[in-house]
Fold this sequence. Notes:
A: mainly alpha; 71% helix; B: mainly alpha; Cytochrome C Oxidase, Chain A
Amino acid sequence: MSANVTMRAGSGFPGQPGGDGAPHGGPSPSHGARRTGLLVFMVVVSTLFGLFGVAYMMRAAYEDWRPIVYVPWQLWCSTGLLLLCSVAWELARRHAAIGRRDAARSTSTGALLLSATFVVSQLYAWQAMTAADYAVAANPANSFFYLITGLHAVHVIGGMLAGAMVAAGFMRGRATQAVGEGIALCAQYWHFLFVLWLAVFGLLYFVTPEVVRAFCTTMGIPVR
Amino acid sequence: MSYGEVHDQDHDQHHAPQSFWTKYVWSQDHKVIAIQYTITALFVGLIGLVLSDLMRLQLGFPGKFQFIDPSSYYQFITMHGMIMVIYLLTALFLGGFGNYLIPLMVGARDMVFPFLNMLSYWFYLLAVVILCVSFFVPGGATGAGWTLYPPQAILPGTPGHDWGIIVMLISLVVFIVAATMGGLNYVTTVLQARARGMTLMRMPLTVWGIFVATILALLAFPALFVSGVMMLFDKILGTSFFMPALVSMGQQLDYKGGSPLLFQHLFWFFGHPEVYIVALPAFGVISDLISVHARKCIFGYRMMVWAIVIIGGLSFIVWAHHMYVSGMHPWFGFFFATTTLIIAVPTALKVYNWTLTLWRGDIHMTVPMLFALGFISTFLIGGLTGLFLGNVSVDIPLSNTYFVVAHFHMVMGVSPVLAVFGGLYHWYPKVTGRMYNETMGQAHFWITFLGSYAIFFPMHYLGVLGMPRRYYAYENYAFIPESAHTLNAFITVAALVVGVAQLLFLFNIAWSVKKGQPSGGNPWRAASLEWFTPQTPPEHGNWGPELPSVHRGAYEYGVDGPGGDYIPQNAGPEYGPDPHAPPHPPSRSAPRHDEAEVPK
């Protein structure tokens, strides 16, 4: 899904009649349109994860909730990696903005590689969890862990597809400024992914039943 | 604002796709995609219609049709509900009407992300195919009811509990992906690709309805996605998100600690906005039809816009009124009953405004107008019973009876379908360049309208009588009198007649594509932008070399204009200033008047 937003970043599609410039007849989407599209998409993703968060908290308020106490070190590693991705895209954006084509190309490639490493690190964390007997169906907290981290990784992978299409613009000889617009959108999306990851991480390990109960009591919501 | 950005691209060459495949199949043209969406949705809606008639056969003449056993009856109920609400109405209003009308009504050449738009249709088609596959998997389609409540949805005893439910959930997830891709497009197009002078407050109400409904869809469908994915986990991986510890068929299951109520909250957090996802575009379409065919400016345009926005906002805080019988804290019931009743205010306002638009209008009883008037009538009836059901104390005794069936079919079954028909007849000349057959259209309206009343109005009485819904057979219940059975047979006959009458509609639109009278570009003498394309049907790129510029709202009727009693939106300022412009126009949205552009 995440791939969608910047899908039209390259205006020419192979196999399209008149792939030079306006393949479709109408104007190719302007930068403003793509930025708005990405913004709307990020709101949708936030809603999605927000709803998971609400479901998680509603379930965590029950008496039989067993929070996960084990934090695989791989998760800290993932956090660092995703931060580096975010920084790398930001650097690529700045390089592209001042016309440093080669630097922008290598940093964006690096950002994509780092993102791949992040996904691998997440899988490694899953393996560590399973090895420590936190199986997916063992209790609801575990199920939520795999579901939410998995969905976050899917959004990273989607972003990588879009990012790869943007970076391919260097290969196809598009102007640095045009690719730079795509890179700016990628940077924005990865900052978002990083913040989203912090929220997910925080939700899974720091939103304990006590926190939920305290919150609900303050809001006047009855807790079972 | 992006008037300039789009305008700059005017001089680009227009490479219209040439081959059959790129033109009609893998098309990125919003008009072709809209037609693809519409035809697919009508096809799947036909399946839903047949399913409803099969159910009615069992209810009207119990036991006469051997092939309808309890399992298949529940499968028919489930698939009928799911198809009609999601795969027909949502897809048709957003994918069909949204795709066709948004770019034409706001003066754009296409959606801003045409490739994504094409992908949206193909994902939708995939969802429909997966849905249809579920009839043929072992055990058949799911029979869990369209709400798919766990635990029963995935436990033995419910038809389709092993494969049907999985296929259904996968189809929904694919549909949500499709709707999200489409939705991103519609919202971005409205925000970014409007023609010069097309301020938000000059957009036709159809666009407003679809725009707000799309925002609702983007924010509500994630809740269905969350609940669907979590239920898939419960079913396939054995997690216990929604599954409590329970004994099924004498066996203690491995599930423990899940909460079925959590599913209901998530489902209805989607489910209630879903009602407005199909209602708001209908409101918009009806406003346009009434204004055009009564030759009057829509009464209280700004009020109508704000009503749409407020209804959209409120629709997110009323969901638990679907769950009164599930049990909740009394304060919650109080809260949700209050918010539910508050929604009646902007909704009633819309009905008043439609009535006041009709008041002393020059009413033309065309087929679209008939459907619009029919909509007001059925929506009013359904809305009033909604006020009953919004109250906890009234809802609890009525909740599991036919009263609720009558209510929601009137308000979100018949009404949006009438709006769909009205809209399809109204824009048919623009889409095909030809007029539908008037006689067949009139016959279609009267049979559908009177028939729907014959079907659903008696159900209110059955409900008050206490006839429970969702039952397969009603024999041997002392409290159900013989007359109720007679009434059921009557309803079934009416339903069959209405079902068959839809063939009139299908034949009419298919026949008129080739044989209808040529309609010309603007047969209704309408003022909104979509009627002023250089060609009818509009060609690729919609507007020829020059994008239109807009100088007024879409509802200038009953005035002295260049074409008669109306002034087109793109008629230049020499036809008078915009009478509905705000007194102190904010600098950002001030229309830039260019040299005069005479309507084409």
